[in-house]
Amino acid sequence: MIILSIDTSCDETSVAITDGRKVLANAIYSQVLLHKKWGGVVPSIAKRAHEEKIDLVIEECLHKFNRSQTSTHCTNLFITCFKNIDYIAVTQGPGLAIALEVGINKAKELAKKYKKKLIAVNHLEGHIYSAFAQNSAGNPQREIEFPFLAIIVSGGHTEIVLMKDHLNYEVLGETVDDAAGEALDKAAKLLGLGYPGGPVIETLAAQVKNQDLDHFPRPMLREKTLDMSYSGLKTAFYYHLKKLTEKEKNQQLKTLVSSFQEAAFDVLIKKTESAIKKTGVKRLVVGGGVIANKRLRNLFRALAKNHQGEVVFPPYKYLTGDNAAMIGIVACYKAQKNVFAENPDQLDRLPRMTLTSLSGVDKN
Question: What pTM, to 2 d.p., does this model score?
Answer without folding.
Answer: 0.93
